[in-house]
Amino acid sequence: MFEWPIKRDEFQHRDLASEFRGYDDVLFSSYISYICSKTATRANSMQMRTPPGIASARNLDTLLSMNVTTRKVEHQVPLDLGSYTSSEAARLLKTSRRKITRWMRGYGYRRGSLTRRIEPLWMPQLHMVDEHLELGFRDLVELRFVKAFLDAGLDLLTVRNCLAYARECVADTHPFSTQRFQTDGRTIFLESLNAEGELAVLDLKKHQYEFRQVIKRTFKDLDLEGGSVVRWRPFKGKPSIILDPKRSFGQPITAEYGVPTVVLSEAVAAEGSIERAAHLYEVPGPVVRDAVEFEAGLAEV
After folding, report:
1. pTM of the entire predicted model
2. Read out DSSP for 259-282?
């Protein structure tokens, strides 16, 4: 049985071992954790049962020999940016993959004989891999704000204009996920409306209130350091589960123990109880329960 984090000397998959030469133990464990999350998530999205080897982490050879695409070393993701496919981002933000793709890759449409191109809201932190969209952690947080503003009743053009204006004011490519936007977001919003001549057509009092509430609510479970968001506590704001781009490529993990939430959730399903899964991973029962509830909440969307 593997301890967590997984040690290099416990890794027996010879075909891949050579690819990890030069990786220190922290990076090695982070990468394997990332693969666990990616593999289990892929199985869930295909409505397949995750193999017991993944659920219990008893057989990494089984996990890594599955025909699941993972990032090759030559396309290695920087350790501090996080990494999410459009499907993973949609799952975490509880929205559709189509919306994520339209917001981040842009789209075109025809009106009569004319074709118009709508540009992406911004350029992602990561390059596409094999023509597939890849997002960083701050992309994810920024999209969370976009979704929150749209859910509050603002239209996409207003959000786009606010984003562009905020980018200039904050001098950051991802302005919504900054401390400056937390403190000055309402002012930036009003100034962006004035610059675009939208003050006269909007219900200003209503939208000011909605905008202020979105900022307050969305920043509530975000941790800031050095002027920008560095961590998200996605399960009711509790500290037990986090997304941290410097750990496990930003996949949801238990904060203190580093085990991916999807792995714990699958372990409970495979082992038959929270108690057995908690014993297997040496993670407290309440933390395992949080992981199970968190994953169940994502699956409901």
Report:
1. 0.77
2. -BHHHHHHHHHHHSSHHHHHHHHT
